[in-house]
Amino acid sequence: MQRRRTRLEFVCRGWKPCLVCGDVEGKFDVLFNRIRAIQKKSGDFDLLLCVGNFFGSTPDAEWEEYKTGIKKAPIQTYVLGANNQETVKYFQEADGCELAENITYLGRKGIFTGSSGLQIVYLSGTESLNEPVPGYSFSPKDVSSLKTMLCSTSQFKGIDILLTSPWPKYVGNFGNSSGEVDTKKCGSALISSLATGLKPRYHFAALEKSYYERLPYRNHVVLQENAQHATRFIALANVGNPEKKKYLYAFSIVPMKLMDAAELVKQPPDVTENPYRKSGKEASLGKEIPAPEEESACQFFFDLNEKQGRKRSSMGRESKASPHAKQPRKPPQPPGPCWFCLASPEVEKHLVVNVGTHCYLALAKGGLSDDHVLILPIGHYQSVVELSAEVVEEVEKYKDTLKCFFKSKGKRCVLFERNYKSHHLQLQVIPVPLSCCATDDIKDAFITQAQEQQIELLEIPEHSDIKQIAQPGAAYFYVEFDTGEKLFHRIKKNFPLQFGREVLASEAILNIPNKSDWRQCQISKEEEETLARRFRKDFEPFDFTLDD
């Protein structure tokens, strides 16, 4: 059966071009009437991406007509968030939402990925180095977290499109004139750093009320590094400006993952040096950007120091090894701080309940039950599909052991992973009392709630590997039952972050709907320590890491 293609997927395949727009500033009729005229003349475009100020200081009467459905955008439109305090009120949800029919707010920051591989990275707001960060700004840690999400894999080569509102500082270096905009004074150094790290093929920005299509620039050093694709930076003017500066840009793009390597790295004849590369005082980006701290909304924290009754070696067993024994390979490390890497100094340190050679167990903070646990890799892996063979083997060992452990307590367990808006693999394991419901009831509850939220959950063969279905970097959700059956959803854009919890907390299963959000389930540190000690003691007879 052929899967229905989304609008984004059409763009990914280059079947239709898309449009990018500069500051709309509330001139919705001017913009959409212009697009109607263009489409009437040139044919349909797949979508419109808006950078800069989407809302203006004008009265809301015009917007109300779109918000209430009296008027409708003639094209699927995706917009960035606020750049000033005045317009923060329009963007209430940090993770993005529908503002009106055919008009969607992307969110504060993230990745918009098509099934064919096209990657659009977006960052809303203006630069702020102050704490707390205003609701219309981004910080150094926002920039670093985006780079960490994408650049931490060895396969990373760049992205297709980067959307920001501010220009990157110094973008005019080594390039054609940027007109009245002084790129050594205007723009954001953080955006320059982001563009340097992500290596977009196209980078769009606005806010300066000026059109500037910079000459393409290299992402490699000639004769010192392997050739890489070039980047095109395009800044767009404001809609309906009296000088008739260009505010709409049309282009077609084939995802870099689908391109022949030689074709991808072919250098345009007018390519220049990278404007952000340090070359004397002019191109210097100044002080290095601080390493990020993870967002405060992280759900799970781990104890790295509390003694667990035995001295363990790095192999996760009782310490008996010879001092000359071969040391295990060092696990992958994150490029910046990570809340979930076992050696991270950033985390709270009291909920680790078991440590193996490649993985460890931790109680969930704000868990659905007292024995809701996580299986996590010790090294930095984003998802199950990126795990090395030896880590996969130990994950499976933990899964089998936990099934036996919970069965001894009259429970079956449900496992799920959400590889979306997360940086480190968290395989959640939630026990469900056998008296609550059968496995088929749990499976039906997931399918029913998915259908209600228009989420396509596909059943995959019992012994199939997620790696056969999802590619590294792809966003997905999957749930696994005690029978070995699995349901899988490929995430194309938005996905409810609490979906797995909501289903399990529902009346059909655990009947604790008030616990669907982990933030409403937090208890004191003393209570968490008590639960962790209890779990360690109960789990000890099943602990395979203690075997000689």
From TrEMBL:
InterPro entries cross-referenced by the UniProt entry: Cwf19-like, Cwf19-like_C_dom-1, Cwf19-like_C_dom-2, HIT-like_sf
Region (Disordered): 269-288, 309-334
Any one Gene Ontology BP term: mRNA splicing, via spliceosome
Pfam families from the UniProt entry: CwfJ_C_1 (PF04677), CwfJ_C_2 (PF04676)
Cited SUPFAM superfamilies: HIT-like (SSF54197)
All copies of domain Cwf19-like C-terminal, residue ranges: 330-435
Record-annotated Cwf19-like protein C-terminal domain positions: 453-545
CDD domains: MPP_CWF19_N
GO CC annotations on file: post-mRNA release spliceosomal complex
GO molecular function: RNA lariat debranching enzyme activator activity
Bias-annotated ranges (Basic and acidic residues): 275-285
PANTHER family for this protein: CWF19, CELL CYCLE CONTROL PROTEIN, CWF19-LIKE PROTEIN 1
Family stated for the protein in its record: Belongs to the CWF19 family.
Name of the protein: CWF19-like protein 1
Organism: Jaculus jaculus
